[in-house]
Specification:
- It comes from Streptomyces violascens.
- InterPro entries: DinB/YfiT-like, Maleyloyr_isom, MDMPI_C-term_domain, MDMPI_metal-binding.
- This is Maleylpyruvate isomerase family mycothiol-dependent enzyme.
- The chain is α+β, with helices and mostly antiparallel strands.
- It folds into 2 domains: 140 residues, Four Helix Bundle (Hemerythrin (Met), subunit A); 104 residues, SCP2 sterol-binding domain (Nonspecific Lipid-transfer Protein, Chain A, 2-Layer Sandwich), CATH 3.30.1050.
- Strands 7-6-5-8-9 form a 5-stranded mixed β-sheet. A two-stranded antiparallel ribbon has the order 1-2.
- β5 and β6 form a beta hairpin.
- It is globular and about 50 Å long.
- The protein starts with a helix and ends with a helix.
C-alpha cells in the first residue's frame, strides 16, 4: 500500500506534532529503552536533523550524495532549553514538508536507494518519524497509536528496505532457512496481512492469508513495532503461533545497517 505524496507530507507534520507532545514536560535526559544509546533529547535531534537533511536534498534538487554534516542547523539548537528544541523540531518539519510539497511526487532527487523521486523521501520521512515517535512514546509511557493505512504502508516499506539492504550486502545474517515462512495478521484492520516466504536467494512477500511456519497476530501498530524491534514479541498485546524461533531469527537479522 502506498499513500498519496500529499498525504505523506501531511503525515510527517502530524507525526512530528505527536512526537513533540510526547516530549512536552518529559525529562529529556532520560534514556530511550528502544534506542539505548540515546536520550530523549538525542532522539529528538536525530529526527529533526533528518527532516532538515531531507529539506536540503529536496530543496537543492540534489543529484549526488549529501553528507548530513553539510546541512546547516541539522544538529539542533545550541541551548538545551526544551522550548528551543520544540521550536527547532516544529520549524524543521515545516521546512521538510514544504520542500516536498513544492517538489511534487515526481521530481528526481538523490537518495541512498539510488536516483529516485521526491515521493521516496515523503514516504521515508513519514515512517522514520512514526517509528521514532514509538521510541519516544515508550520512553515516556504514552499510548502509541497509528492510522491503519500508515502502519500498513510502514510495514510494506520496511520489507522493501530489508530486501534492498540484503541485495546490496548491507546485512548478510540469514533471515531464516529456505522453506520457512512468516504470517503477519492484524486483528484490528481487515485485510492487513502479510505472508513472507524465505527462499534460497532471499525472501518474497505478499498480502496474503496462508498457513506459515510462524504467525504473529495482534493490533497493526503493535505488529509494526514488533517488526521494527520496538516491542518484544512476547508482549501481551500480540500472539505468536507456531515456531517462535523463526520469528526471533528474522527479527535478529532484519536490519538496514
Amino acid at each position: 500500500m502506498t499513500l498519496e505524496h500529499a498525504t505523506y507530507c501531511d503525515e510527517i507534520v502530524r507525526q512530528t506534532a505527536e512526537l513533540r507532545s510526547h516530549l512536552s514536560g518529559a525529562d529529556l535526559s532520560a534514556k530511550v529503552p528502544t534506542c539505548p544509546d540515546w536520550t530523549l533529547r538525542e532522539l529528538a535531534r536525530h529526527v529533526g536533523g533528518a527532516h532538515r537533511w531531507v529539506h536540503h536534498i529536496v530543496s537543492t534538487k540534489a543529484t549526488e550524495p549529501v553528507s548530513p554534516e553539510q546541512v546547516a542547523g541539522r544538529g539542533g539548537p545550541e541551548s538545551d532549553d526544551p522550548a528551543a528544541l520544540d521550536a527547532w523540531l516544529a520549524e524543521g518539519v515545516e521546512l521538510c514538508a514544504g520542500a516536498l510539497r513544492d517538489a511534487g511526487p515526481d521530481m528526481e532527487v538523490w537518495s541512498w536507494a539510488g536516483m529516485t523521486t521526491a515521493s521516496f523521501w515523503s514516504r521515508r520521512m513519514t515512517h522514520e518519524t512514526a517509528v521514532h515517535r514509538a521510541d519516544a512514546a515508550g520512553a515516556v509511557g504514552a499510548v502509541y497509536t497509528l492510522p491503519a493505512d500508515v502502519a500498513a504502508d510502514a510495514l510494506d516499506e520496511w520489507l522493501g528496505i530489508i530486501d534492498f539492504a540484503r541485495a546490496f550486502k548491507r546485512s548478510e545474517t540469514p533471515l531464516g532457512e529456505p522453506g520457512q515462512s512468516l504470517h503477519l495478521h492484524a486483528t484490528d484492520a481487515p485485510g492487513a496481512e502479510w505472508l513472507i516466504e524465505i527462499g534460497e536467494e532471499g525472501f518474497t512477500w505478499s498480502h496474503a492469508h496462508d498457513k506459515a511456519t510462524v504467525a504473529l497476530r495482534g493490533p497493526l501498530a503493535d505488529i509494526l513495532r514488533v517488526f521494527y524491534r520496538r516491542l518484544p514479541a512476547d508482549a501481551p498485546s500480540v500472539e505468536v503461533l507456531g515456531e517462535a524461533a523463526v520469528l526471533d531469527q528474522w527479527l535478529s537479522a532484519a536490519s538496514f545497517g
